[in-house]
Amino acid sequence: MRDLLARLPLHLLLIVCLTLGLAPFLPEPHVWEKLKLLAAGQLVRPIDIFDLLLHGTPWVLLTLKTTLGRTPAVGD
Question: pLDDT-based confidence at 72, cuts 50/70/90?
Answer without folding.
Answer: low
